[in-house]
Amino acid sequence: MRTFDFAPLHRATIGFDQIASLMDRALSADAAQPSYPPYNIEKTDADSYRISIAVAGFSDEDLNVEVRENALVVSARKAEEGETGTFLHRGIATRAFERRFTLADHVRVTGAAHENGMLHIDLHREVPEALKPRRIEISSSRSNRAEIEAKAVN
Prior knowledge:
The protein is of the alpha+beta class. It is built from 3 helices and 7 strands, in the order ααβββββββα. It folds into 2 domains: 1-33, no CATH class; 37-81 and 92-133, Immunoglobulin-like (Sandwich), CATH 2.60.40.
């Protein structure tokens, strides 16, 4: 596997620490990433997203969804139940899990729903007014000079 050195990026940029850290984490992640439970990430609108996680066998009480430190953490722990029978085949996994999703700035969770064995988490990106593009009016140089001269005379 090839490794990348991001030290020059840290030396030449200011304020991009989160991006550099994210790239470090993504490139240093083990190839054996857990694939349980399976999930989808879909873009539902220009600034809206939905994460759908297959959580068959878990009830609402077994699931936990929380946001902490710009990360969405979804975890589940099956309540201990006495086994009533002997399984000949056990194909439905109900083992505990924790799945993390890194959230970009200004992305917030708007809701979560558990239906038909799927946990749907809706997210929305809200760009603050100060960060939205705004149009700057360009005035002619003649009117600026006239205003400056008028102020200087008075």
